[in-house]
Design a protein that fits this description.
By secondary structure, the chain is α+β, with helices and mostly antiparallel strands. It has a domain of about 120 residues. Helices cover about 55% and strands about 10% of the residues. A hairpin with a 3-residue loop joins strand 1 and strand 2. Helix 3 runs antiparallel to helix 5.
Amino acid sequence: MTEPERLRLGGMALRNGLLIHGPTSWAAAARAPDGSVEVASGPKPVFARGRLGTTPLVRGPLRLAEAIAVLPVARRNLPSARLPFEDPRVIVIALATTVASGLLRRRQATGAAGGLAREGALAALGSLPALAALRDRDLAAYHGVEHKAIGAYEQGADDPADIPKEHDRCGSNLIAPLLAFSAAGQVILDRVVEEPGQVHRALAGLGAASAAVEVFALADRKPQSVIGRAVHGPGHEIQRLVSTREPTPEQLEVGRAALAAILAEEAEHDSGTGDGLKDERVAADTV
């Protein structure tokens, strides 16, 4: 008998737990105020159906949209869960960076170098809310739990504590290609369109995200290639230095609960209650 194909899992660290999503379902576990571990799961919104799920430059944003759409569903079904940006300081910083980005965007950039410098500054401003959120030690630790739990499942390991806290499919590996494509796209837009509006900027941003996800997926398929090393190198350093911490045994317990719940939910879906989406695989799932 051959071993069943392992599911492709993605996830998101919570302030007090872990959310994991599979091909058709989601599951979350959180440490409640009384110290217990609460778990919830269910079917997830699926946008990348049929050809849309395999079409380059389309599949990536759709899969990312699925991951975002899961958040309010999980939060509603697991009230004890706390999302990464559920922090007044992070909200204030996000609002402040939005205002600052708008002011900076109105400034005229001189030449391509000036345009790239402006886009680089805008990208740096855009990263501030995430950096502020990751100042929470528990959030960074649960990010490590996410990588260890999913990595242990992928490698067939019994103990996630033995798995590195860095993962090749972490969203941090999207940062370098996304910054590069975003800056280049906005500079090109400024040269092609005389007075680009919000719609033009949004379309350019969507195109940059689509291209970045395809590079991310290529790096995942060929990690030893030039592109793979260029993407994973900065991503691993971000994870090692900033975005992850070694979790405690209690935090790993929450990760095990979330992993068990998603595997049970996917198994139930695969037993005949689902709609045939189980076999879809897209390399854009981020961990």
